[in-house]
Amino acid sequence: MDFIKVIIIGIVEGITEFLPISSTGHLILLGEFLPLRPQSFENAFLVIIQLGAILSVLVLYFKELNPLSKNKPRLKEFSKDKDLTLKDKWRYRDLKTMRLIAKILVGFLPAAVLGFLFDDFIDKHLFNKITVALALIFYGFVIIIIERKKIREVKFTSIDEIDMGTILKIGLFQCLAMVPGTSRSAATIIGAMLLGCERKTAAEFSFFLAIPTMLGATGLKIIKLGFGFTAVQWMQILLGLIVSFLVAYGVIVKFLDYIKKHDFQVFGIYRIVLGAFVLVTALIRK
Predict the structure, then answer these.
(1) Range of 28's domain?
(2) Which residue from 69, 187, 191, 192 could staple onto 176, CB 3.0 to 4.6 Å apart?
(3) What is the mean pLDDT of the chain?
């Protein structure tokens, strides 16, 4: 039964990680119905399988993120030309990729600082169904209002056009997702759109920004939780990673295709319905 639970959890993680509906919120809710034992293993498992989703981004955007791509001119190919200055030689590097990596790191900085400072507080006080339900509902309405009112102006149609000041502001928006149920993707995508990014550009930068953010969060959790797993538990972790990777890969491809013709209102409605259901059931049980 635990392996079936692992597959289901991996599927949910893969589906929800990059959609604006909160993967953390869904996993917290799912844990009520499909708990893994012991609790310490479940806590570690839910964190580690995020790496599967991260790997899907790295695979999909490998060329964009790899500054050492073989199909691009490299510095060493021109290093023997004495007529070129050092500045000229560096122009042969993939400056676009280097700028992208720099922007990802700048966008990650606010979450890195605040996450390190408040991680324990968040785990202790905010990881509960009521917080998730309220965040789902609130930001569901925010998404719908923003989409319907069209309160934004498109300034950036590619990540390369976004200036560092705007990147830092997107990073600050991402910090809103420290509250479970908010959704890191929702915070960064909607925040980027409000700051002038075209929808597809906002979504792609959200994917990129997930790499250091989730790696940092996962690393911090693993340090605290440790690696004292049994052989069976390692098998469950590996299975969860594979499932979340495969599902997330497909979701990203479909999601980018979807937003070419549609806005995010359907996700806002889904969040409100789910949040209301969770809130009502939680209050009834009390």
Answers:
(1) 2-119+129-285
(2) 187
(3) 87
How long is the chain?
286
- CA pair distance 149, 50, nearest whole angstrom: 34
Query: Tokens 């599902």 map to which residue?
Result: 247
Phi, psi of 156 (to 5 degrees): -125, 120
Structure tokens at 107: 């966008």
Q: Does residue 197 sit in helix, strand or coil?
A: strand
| Residue 58 Cα to chain centre, angstroms | 12
- Locus of tokens 């440790």: 226
DSSP string across 16-35 = HTTTTT-HHHHHHHHHHHS-
CB 53 within 8 Å of CB 214: yes
CA distance 140 to 23: 14
* Block residue for tokens 């899907």: 56
In-domain check, residue 180: yes
Task: Tell me the C-alpha distance between 74 and 94, whole Å.
Answer: 8
Nearest-5° angle of CA 37, CA 39, CA 40? 115
Q: What is the pLDDT of residue 274?
A: 94
Contacts of 277 (CB under 8 A, 6+ apart): none
The domain tally of the chain equals 1
Residues 6 or more apart from 257 whose CB is under 8 A from it? Answer: none
Q: Is residue 114 part of a domain?
A: yes
- The identity of residue 172, as a single letter, is L
- Distance separating alpha carbons of residues 142 and 182, to the nearest angstrom: 11
> Does the structure show a pLDDT above 80 at 79?
no
Whether 274 is in a domain gets the answer yes
Domain assignment present for 124 = no
β partners of residue 156: 197
Each residue's pLDDT tens digit, 1-36: 789 999 999 999 999 999 999 998 899 888 888 888
Q: Is the pTM of this model over 0.90?
A: no
pLDDT for residue 140: 96
Question: Is the confidence at residue 195, as pLDDT, over 50?
Answer: yes
Q: Which amino acid is at 155?
A: K
